[in-house]
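Sync notes, pocket subgroup
Present: LS, DG
LS reminded everyone that the earlier model was apo-only. Rerun requested with zinc ion included. Inputs:
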Amino acid sequence: MTITGGCLCGAVRFEIAADAPLGARYCWCRVCQYLGAGTGAVSALFRKDDVTVSGPLTDHVIQADSGATMHRRFCARCGTPLFSEAEQRPRQIFVRAGSLDDPNLAAPSATIWTKSAPTWACFDPKLPQVDGQPSPAPLT
Ligand SMILES: [Zn+2]
Ligand SMILES: [Zn+2]
């Protein structure tokens, strides 16, 4: 199966050779609040080798508190947040759930970084909550 997606303006499109994400989480860290324009952000994990991207991306690079060098990629035309990658985990790519043509594929399994969320945030009571960074998702 192929999963497809892209940005708001259509300049960036991507295809993922997978049936489903390896995992997805709803993150309320401060970075995800910027990406989500106030809410947290849901990101879905895939194998980087399975993802093919076309179109212009910008790359915002920062050193995370964990020491990882993070690349966050956006459509260069409309600014839609699309991907995030850590240099230290070169086989993984996180895809923003909103950029999938079918966001239903990225149902999160947990809510993370709840301690950074604003007091008005709503958490899904059916999902486990982690107050900070959980262990990195394993990828074989
Ligand atoms: Zn765009
Ligand atoms: Zn986050």
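DG: Residues 27, 29, 31-32, 113 surround zinc ion (ligand 2) (CB under 6 Å).
LS: The longest helix spans residues 30-35.
Action: DG to write up.
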